């Protein structure tokens, strides 16, 4: 009896500790702290990524050698999107969140999914390394240095395995509200690339950059592994002793069974006679987080994977259409895209932190809470990305000159990259909306194919614009196709969000978005004029960094929106008092009392 009492007391203490931890993590200051740490580490990773791109531009310029590396760079680009940022997170974060919220055994989910994932990743890595020549011929026909591209591709193929493991660990940690190690992965990754490239470029040339990709992938796993092991060790709930055995004997406990005396609250753990299930019964060998969970996750992963591959195919189209152009075209597209997408990465940080909250709200059936969270995320993301896009468009030549124009990267490369960057920036709002909207789509429990269909439609628009625009406009036509296709996808996702996931109030959000677009246009014009007036790149960039936000805020205030307007949805909503049909309407002092009734059918 004493042992049972000790077990019960220990369980209650542990549950109180877990509940307290969850309350701290979900409190407003906890979310703000997590967002702050994530923002700092993301900014550090972005700065190191910028240092990586600067090193490539300085050491190899914008020519045949850098184009060969960037063709191989397609492998980690696609792997990062599929296995870390989108597909893996959109499938595994909800899965881990549901298991954790229900007190389930996380280890069972890991045993059911991780071995299969490792086998698939290993096969994909070997196939890519063996088929590197075919990959280069298909992706970049007519590239100037195919031998270097093949050698680099074989080195970067290791990223498929390491990125997959890193993405799996990131999903488990984010679902348990541990955001620091996942946010540090790109710091470790880019540090590994830069260190390897600087150490060995003199001996191996551009192949040193590809070897750095392999080394950086290993560091992504290493930086998360200790925290992931701690989560798996601490997240196992207490278990129920089997009848007739010593409760102190852990071998007598049914694995994966939450401590619930008699399992009175879980009908799934009862046998046909109404008693607790015997874990030794072969009919009960498959628990809720075993092979059946693996099959369910595979069913959910199919539409997510298809969507992610379709989205990343935009990069493949760019490489395909740019390969026959003069050497350096792929490099100009890459450098422009990397810098232009920095505002998008900043705007999606809050969505990354709040994604588990949306998943849990939808899993609990609380669609009102999920809708409120999605609306807040969309509003804040739009404000941040449009402000960043205004700065990028206004100051593009000075930014590129300041960041890249040194070594083998000359003034002609600066002008071409800046022009492409301005075209890319036109699609930043669409890129952000797609990244924010797809999360609630894939938070629902049933497989959702609509995002993949919407992305396929956008991809068709991208291919059509690229094919039409590449002949007269070259790389500018390719960048325009990217912007047009992703904007089409964002419009389709926003239009059908209510039918598939969460119904956001478009009539409320549309006027806000229009006012923010007006403010961004005014800020762009102000910054453009200022950047042209100042010749020094450092002075022009610094002046635009001050003038563009000031013009944005002033225009927003003039439009009666204000700087605080876009952020107002982030404040808690107060419950609104609903007047009854017989309640008197407000009237002037001494005036008649009138009664209003709602139109028929209106809530």
Short description:
The protein has 603 residues and is mainly alpha-helical. 73% of the residues lie in helices and 1% in strands. The longest helix is centred in the middle third of the chain and has 38 residues, at 367-404.
Written overview of the protein:
The N and C termini lie far apart (57 Å). Helix content is 73%, strand content 1%. It has helices at 2-26, 28-60, 64-85, 87-101, 106-130, 132-139, 146-156, 158-175, 180-183, 185-204, 207-234, 291-322, 329-340, 342-347, 349-363, 367-404, 411-425, 428-441, 450-473, 475-495, 497-500, 506-533, 537-558, and strands spanning 239-241, 253-258. It is globular. Helix 3 runs parallel beside helix 8 (158-175), helix 12 (291-322) runs antiparallel to helix 20 (475-495) and helix 16 (367-404) runs antiparallel to helix 23. The longest helix has 38 residues, at 367-404.
* Inertia-based shape: globular
Beta content comes to: under 5%
Q: Secondary-structure element order, as H and E?
A: HHHHHHHHHHHEEHHHHHHHHHHHH
**Radius of gyration, CA atoms, in whole angstroms:** 27 Å
| Structural class computed from helices and strand pairing | mainly alpha
**Could you give the count of β-strands?**
2
- Poorly predicted tracts of residues: 1-28, 236-290, 561-591, 593-603
Query: For the largest beta sheet, what order do the strands appear in spatially?
Result: 1-2
Number of helices: 23
